[in-house]
Task: structure prediction
Amino acid sequence: MKKIAVLVSGSGSNAENLVNYFRKGDLARVSIILSNKKDAFALVRAQRLGVPSLYFDRNDFYNSSKILETLKEQEIDWIVLAGFLWLVPSDILAAYEGRIVNIHPALLPKYGGKGMYGMKVHCAVVENGEKETGITIHYVNSRYDEGGMIFQAKTEVLPTDTPEMVAEKVHALEYEHFPKVVAQIIAEQ
Result:
């Protein structure tokens, strides 16, 4: 059984979805949830789900080997970013090459890059009069949202949609597709 570490910065709804999805089978398990925000609701979710969790700061992530050592101690096979807002450092990228996956709440390459996350993306989609948006699941590299694309799913944006309505549509796509796509790429390797 493969072990997954989920990195989060926010509420952790996708992390919870991944935990629950993988508990139903024997392919993989979410073994640990790591957050760079001390007050991230994802840490509360992890505790409620009985999944070990760890908070880390910028120094832990970029100036020490603490996180990579934790991943190795936990025998982590895959890293999944679910609303994680920092670039992954080169030591972790090298150790997990081709085994770090992210989800982005837009159809990349549109609305990607530094500072484009969450409601900022949905507001930009509405402000620019886009007719569709969606999700992109991609591999992680050293630049924001530029790793190789794995999967996209689309949803219509109506002229009457607010950013909040767009967010709901995108969340529905995330919950439907993210765990299945992660499972598929794990199964294929």
In short: Helices lie at 13-23, 41-49, 58-62, 66-73, 90-95, 118-127, 163-188. The chain is about 40% helix and 25% strand.
